[in-house]
Amino acid sequence: MGNWFPRIYDIAMNPLEHTYFKRIRTTLIRKAKGRVLEIGSGTGVNIPYYTNAIKIDAIEPNPLMSKRSYKRIKKSGIPIQTYLDKAEKLPFSDNTFDSVVATLVFCTIPEPIKALQEIQRVSKPGAKILLFEHVRVNNKNLGKAQDLLTPLWRKVCDGCHLNRDTLELLKQSNLSISKIDYHYGGLFLVIECFNEQ
Question: pTM of the entire structure?
Answer without folding.
Answer: 0.86
